[in-house]
Amino acid sequence: MEMPPKSPDGSEKSPQELVTSNTGSTLYMSSRSESVWTSASRSKWDIYHKPVIVVSVGAAIFLFGTVITSLSCFLTRNKNVYKMSGPAFLSLGLMLLVCGLVWIPIIRKKQKQRQKSQFLQSLKSFFFNR
């Protein structure tokens, strides 16, 4: 003979109460991202500000590394310091610059996919909610 499931506090729940529990729907609602389901359009700056900042910082560090590396050619004092730190700034700046430049097409592709998804959702709701 099968016993009905007991809740943590020891009281018995009927199968009807278990089915109508809102735990699953609460988890489903909280798992959805707000930005995907809201239709508020964002400006270009809101979308691209992070990669633009990364590209700007990378370009600045790259230029700083170029200046420090060129100083090792002109200055004789502390030449070893310039020779060691210049290429480090060059590589760090180049890495940030490339990461930011690669990030921009990735964001564009995600925006296109999001637009297609929203269009398909509206089309689906138009046909199936009649």
Task: Provide structural commentary.
- The protein is an all-alpha fold and 130 residues long.
- It contains five helices and no strands.
- It has a domain at 46-128.
- The radius of gyration is 28 Å and the shape is rod-shaped.
- Its main location: membrane.
- The chain crosses the membrane at residues 52-77, 89-107.
- Residues 1-26 are annotated as: Disordered.
- It is found in: Membrane.
Question: Can you give keywords for this protein?
Answer:
single chain; 130 residues; mainly alpha
In helices, the fraction of residues equals over 70%
* Secondary structure tally, helices: 5
Radius of gyration: 28 Å
As residue ranges, the low-confidence spans are 27-34
- The total strand number stands at 0
- SS strand fraction: under 5%
Structural class computed from helices and strand pairing: mainly alpha
Major pleated sheet: none
Taking the alpha carbons of the first and last residues, their distance comes to 46 Å
What string gives the helices and strands in order? Answer: HHHHH
- The average pLDDT value, as a whole number, equals 78
Question: So what's the overall shape?
Answer: rod-shaped
